[in-house]
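Quick one, tokens below:
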């Protein structure tokens, strides 16, 4: 028993250092990726629930790895969060989005706002509003063309810095949305005080819509509560015609999901900007 105990200890020890090495490796790789400009932005449309008209585009980071292909956020955002690289990564995303808006504008198509994801760590760094303001200034873009999505947990852990950042963005004219609504513990009064423009209801609620009358009633309650305090409701993860019809029936303001379109590269967005109505 003693030897196996010792063995376990060694195993545990090696495992820990392996984990550390792997974390440091991934950190170094991500840092290099940012330096070598391997980060690209994909865009997923959001549409008016009633008319299917394009209302906004969500910017979603991808890592175009020279040997691994296009990597999804789940493979690198957590490392970025842990190591603090989310700060320079977020800054790159914002600048790439503004450059892209300039490019679309040059193509002569009417623009829609682009929504960027900002994590708790980013908002608490206290530099997000300045980064956005600088990018807008550099590109000559109006602040209402950038929207900001903050996860519900970030609004709950509300620090003085985070509140000040949100207030600055709000004053600048960028609309604020609570991301993954329903997965955290924010109160509607708190969201109202923070002057959030709307909520993006977590896709788990959309997925459950067809499970039964109670799930439908739950979504209906969210919509009516949000509307009561003048907040817009966006449904995430709309994957079927049935879900879309139910959400339209509930008076959900905007829709986003694979049924409308998956996230696509910028080159595919031009057609959407021209076409305007996606259903
Ligand atoms: P999110 O902000 O909740 O983004 C929505 C995610 O749901 C995206 O995953 C999108 O591809 C996926 N999705 C969209 N429609 C559907 C659908 O109909 N069904 C299903 N099952 N999924 C759908 P993605 O692109 O893998 O991004 C994952 C998360 O990574 C994002 O979740 C966001 O939290 C984070 N992320 C992505 N880009 C950035 C970024 O630039 N900065 C920060 N801080 N986080 C980012
Ligand atoms: Ca989001
Ligand atoms: Ca979300
Ligand atoms: Ca999320």
């Amino acid at each position: 028993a003693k030897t196996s105990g010792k063995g376990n200890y060694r195993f545990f020890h090696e495992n820990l250092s392996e984990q550390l090495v792997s974390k440091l490796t991934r950190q170094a790789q991500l840092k290099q990726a940012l330096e070598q400009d391997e980060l690209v932005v994909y865009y997923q449309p959001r549409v008016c629930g009633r008319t299917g008209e394009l209302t906004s585009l969500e910017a979603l980071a991808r890592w175009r790895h020279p040997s691994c292909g296009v990597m999804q956020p789940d493979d690198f955002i957590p490392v970025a969060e842990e190591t603090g690289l989310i700060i320079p990564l977020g800054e790159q995303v914002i600048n790439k989005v503004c450059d892209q808006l300039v490019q679309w504008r040059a193509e002569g198509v009417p623009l829609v706002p682009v929504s960027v994801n900002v994590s708790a760590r980013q908002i608490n760094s206290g530099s997000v509003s300045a980064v956005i303001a600088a990018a807008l200034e550099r590109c000559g873009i109006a602040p209402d063309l950038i929207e900001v999505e903050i996860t519900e947990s970030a609004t709950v852990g509300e620090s003085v810095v985070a509140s000040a950042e949100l207030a600055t963005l709000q004053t600048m004219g960028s609309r604020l949305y609570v991301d993954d609504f329903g997965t955290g513990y924010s109160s509607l009064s708190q969201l109202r005080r923070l002057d959030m423009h709307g909520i993006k209801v977590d896709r788990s609620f959309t997925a459950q819509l067809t499970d039964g009358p109670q799930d439908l009633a739950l979504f209906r309650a969210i919509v009516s509560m949000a509307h009561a305090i003048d907040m817009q409701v966006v449904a995430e993860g709309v994957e079927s015609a049935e879900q879309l019809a139910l959400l339209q029936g509930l008076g959900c303001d905007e829709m986003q999901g694979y049924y409308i379109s998956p996230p696509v590269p910028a080159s595919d967005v031009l057609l959407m900007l021209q076409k305007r109505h996606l259903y």
